[in-house]
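Assemble and predict.
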Amino acid sequence: MKAIKCKVISNEQIEKNIYKMVFRSDYISTEARPGQFAHIKLCQHSGLLLRRPISIASVDLNRQSFTIYIQIKGQGTEILCSSVKGDYMDMIGPCGSYFNVSEDIKDIILIGGGIGIAPLLLAAQHFKDRNITSLLGYRDGGQVFSVYEFEKFSKQVLISTDDASVGYGGKITDVLIDILRSGKYDCVLGCGPYPMLKTVKDICQQNDILCQVSLEQNMGCGIGACMGCACKIKTDGGYTYKRVCKDGPVFYADEVIFDE
Amino acid sequence: MNSIDMSVDFLGRKLVNPIVAASGTFSFGMEHSEFMDIEQLGALTVKGITVDEKIGNPPPRITETPSGVLNSIGLQNPGIDYFIDNILPRLSQYSVPVIINISGESVQEYCQIVRKLENQPIFAIELNISCPNVDKGGIEFGTSSQSIYNLVKTVRKATDIPLIVKLSPNVTDICEMAISCEQAGADAICLINTLKGMAIDAKTRRPILGNIVGGLSGPAIKPVALRMVWEVSRRVEIPLIGMGGVMDGQDAAEFMIAGATAVGVGTANLVHPYACENISLQLKDFCRENNISCVSSLIGTLKY
């Protein structure tokens, strides 16, 4: 983890409200593990102080670059997306824990919802030598992104949209139930909204399958100092709060209490 | 001007510069030490410590407001015993003066912690009587001059370690609180802690913070902080750590001009992990550009 300035190589709007940005960085492209994020500073004069944690979605070791996807959710992400080729952006990275999958695990399901799909792309790239099944859930046909990239690294890719305009009509977690019924898998890696992740956790527990999830939370420093980004984690007698930025963002689903 | 004396005398010690990492934004220094040399700090204030471990408040605990940050961490910390056994030994390997920020739910709890810190390698104790994010203790001590006096007086009797009191801005008359601290035997005053605030999501009609209310920090509160430092500096003799929205060297200079001997940096540590180092370098540049040979000559020099 370092504080560095990265040059924007490209920035394109790929779907409604979703931008794909590529940055030059030998360090982050080499060091990033799936699930980790870059903590990105907005431009100096925006009046918005805090950095934005954005998942690293893919790396290109030859070009010494990495890619992120940003969904515009507010003023901060809008400012980030307004960067242009040649700009330098101040970031800390790669930050946090990552999807840690041992060598003997061969059949991996990736399940993502919305912009939470982004970090799973790096997982697909990283674990491409295993058997990857990617389950990608989108709100509607206008939000579908990076499917072809998942296809490069996956044995199969299944898509759902809430409005049934592309792929299965309904929730991507229903697709997870279906494929767990029909096949043998060793682990599930998930990222997306909390209600989705809670369902993923429940399904994996019912099927006795290992599951790791990547969490999102409002974040302060991003390096583990301020305790701003808490998530509720089970302990022997009850629960405690851990740091999403440093102890996470990736946790075993069994430890996470999804009630807040 | 080649050499600028950046040191300040504070509580009988020469700090290498006036920049103090503020409690709660710097944890116990270890995370930031990956990004900067923590020995370049004037002093380091650790995250608030309580008698027992505290797990803190439910998330979300932090959000952004115009030019500010609103937090409701709730003093998450491992407790004084764990701190002394596991964290302080690592921290004391550095030469940086360490200030221990402590909070209690009663006068007895403050005294209990203070006694445990006796003979430990620390520079000073900072009594946090101003945390807006806990149910008991914290701010409730800090909003009545009588309870401040009683607390500081009792803790003063319990220890000879230098005592700093961190004041809350959520009071009618900050000077009254500061005078009580001085009369009760405090060695210094740190001001200001966060201003109580809240943020609401109009669409969902829900508070953004899990704790509903939180403490506001950052440049948004700087004018309030400067005013309070200036007012207090005219009414007490003991030195001040001034803080509230210090983001660069010029901000630090402003606090010294208002009357602070040292300058706390808080929110900026969340933005840049090397903020304290930057701010101290910028303060030095400020001195160079303005033909100031000793940074301490800025203290309390407001012209009006």
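The CA atoms of residues 182 and 217 of chain B lie 25 Å apart.
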